[in-house]
Amino acid sequence: MVRNSPFHYHFCYTQNSRYFFYQHYTDEFEDRFQDDNTTAYNLRKNVIDNLLEYACNKENETGCNEAHSSGVDTRGRFINLNDKGGLELVIVLDSSGSVKPTGFQLGKNFTKELVKTIGKSNRAGGTRVALVTFGTSAELEFNLGDARVSTLEKTSKAIDDVRYRGGGTATAMALELVQKTVAPMARRGSHKALMFITDGKSNIGGSPKKIAKELREKNGFEIYAVAVGRKPSMYELSEIASSGEEYIIRVKSYEKLQKAIRRAAYAKIDYSGCGESPADFRARIVGGSSSRRGWWPWQVAVKKYDRNGNLKFFCGGALIAPQWVLTAAHCFDSWNQFPGELELRKNEFKVSAGEYRLDQPEKSQQDISPEKIVLHDKYVKGNYLNDIALIKLKNKVELGRFVRTVCLPSKEKKDLALAKKYGYVSGWGTTKQLRPHINPKQADYPNRLKHASFQIQENTICQNSTKYTFKPDAMFCAGDGKGGNDTCKGDSGGAFVREGKIGDRYRWVAAGVVSWGEGCAQTDKYGFYTRVYSYIDWIEKTMAEN
């Protein structure tokens, strides 16, 4: 039976959808320190490589992963004062009595090394720096755009000139100063990062929780917290920093911190491993939520040029190798007449890796034309059996923090698409509930990548929920049947992922491909997914032969 486009599944979220993330630090964690090499590795991976992605400067320039994959660029960099976009880096440095003059000097050294490392690029413009110190009170040492910190040399001297103050620990006052004085100076479209460095707990000016939340949510700051020694309250820092363990760095002393940044500056991270992501879900996502850049680094956007020469997004996909994308065959129903390889016209399609926002170019974004699009040889237009396809890219993507591959299921292990288990799907699908045969409006599509969690259902539930053919060996269904959240138009081809143990680690595995459904977020209806486990032989054979 032929079904029309409203059945093509893509991603749907309702306005009541919420994402819950809970982070808890135990007393045992309070006393745990990592070795120097591990600290340097995490500093490089979680902080430096992340910020370097935003340090690339030209609005339409792509491929920043290439610029950073080889480590540190030793060429000098001009710190730009006026360009739109780029990186706004704000350092908030503890200068209280507990730090002592020697510790404060080491903290300044860390700050200089961090700025030097982030600034080591030949890409003109993009990175601006502000410094706030705090003891009993907070002081703005220099602000974003100050002419006296227009170059690396001037910035280093300005940091050297900062004096130790002593006194109490006015954390909230320091963050409030950032919000009132520094945040308004940020450029439109810039990425704002705040590095908070302390060896103690706030004891003047009240709790920093509220102001930190406002900086994150209203002012758009990504906040890192560096805890030096055993005195800092990890609970307080978890309320200051952005959500996720990667945003808190724990070191035994300021000496260790300086050693870590020097090692991190020249460390090289291997991003070739599949299924790795900084996403840390300690509570189940019960509805659609805006994702964070880099949480689903295998997610790609499949696009096609329209008659006016504009590139339009129409489907999702997942990187399974640097030159291969897994997606759904039905994404190409409008262009294919027969199963097998799709005949391509020159520059007809594009695949965008490292993309988070569809409404603007991004520094991590890599746009690559397909060399081949291969539909399953037993897929027929309008038939959702064998709804799977592979795209071979003309060039390999440059792997990095925001561009990685997802793992494929292993034939030697059990299928991960098991009933009652939860999986995750990311995509740019419509955010409205839709009845069958109803197409969404363009305004219903989100510009930012979203994600949601879905429970896999028993085969009998899947079969009884639809009048169409359900083949459990080739597909599965997922969702809650309550109409709360679902995949919908715009998400087709994206991966349904679950964590599976590979070697001694858990990694994200593509258990399914977003395929079809009846409407979006409808009561007693579910999303249907191609069961990837059943197609491993076809995937491996296709990649080997092409």
From TrEMBL:
Keyword tags: Disulfide bond, Hydrolase, Immunity, Innate immunity, Protease, Serine protease, Signal
UniProt key word Phosphoprotein: no
Ranges for domain Peptidase S1: 285-544
Source domain of life: Eukaryota
GO molecular function, one term: serine-type endopeptidase activity
UniProt xrefs under InterPro entries: Peptidase_S1_PA, Peptidase_S1_PA_chymotrypsin, Peptidase_S1A, Trypsin_dom, TRYPSIN_HIS, TRYPSIN_SER, VWF_A, vWFA_dom_sf
Gene Ontology biological process terms, A to Z: innate immune response; proteolysis
Leader sequence residues: none
Segments forming domain VWFA: 88-269
Gene3D superfamilies: Trypsin-like serine proteases, von Willebrand factor, type A domain
UniProt keyword Cell division present: no
Entry protein name: Coagulation factor IX
